[in-house]
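Before relying on records like the one below, remember that each one covers exactly one chain. Contacts with other chains, cofactors or solvent are not represented anywhere in the record.
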Amino acid sequence: MRAALSLFGNAFGDPTTYTGAQPSSDYLERLLERDMFIALTAIRSGEVVGALAAYVLPKFEQERSEIYVYDLAVANAHRRQGIATAMLAELQLVAARHRANVIFVQADYGDDAAIALYTKLGVREDVMHFDITVGSRPQ
C-alpha cells in the first residue's frame, strides 16, 4: 500500500499529499480489511507499476452497490501497455462480487489520457462536481 501511495504521488505530481503524512500501518491494515475499500496493484519485476483505489457505495433504493474509482495511476515508464485497462477489468470482477451495477470515475479536463481510457471503456456523463468544506456552515 505504501508503494501504491508513492506511485500515486509521483503520477499526480503531488508527493506531499500521498507520502508526506502517511497513516500508520495499523490504519492501513484496518482500511484494507474493510469490504468497502478496494485496492489493486499491478506489479512487474517486484515493482508496483500501477495502482487503483476504489470505494464500494451501498445503494438505498435497491440491494446493489456502485463502485467509485477514487485514484488510478500507472508509472510513466509503463503507460500505454494496457495496465490501467487490466486493473479496471479486474475491478469489474470485484464489482460483480459486490453486486454493483456500475463503476464510476471522474477525470479532470485536460487529462486527455484518462479521458481517452474511460471513453473507451464506458459512457461519458457531463456533470458538475462540488467540494463542500467540512466545518463551514452554509450562509
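The first strand starts at residue 37 and ends at 44.
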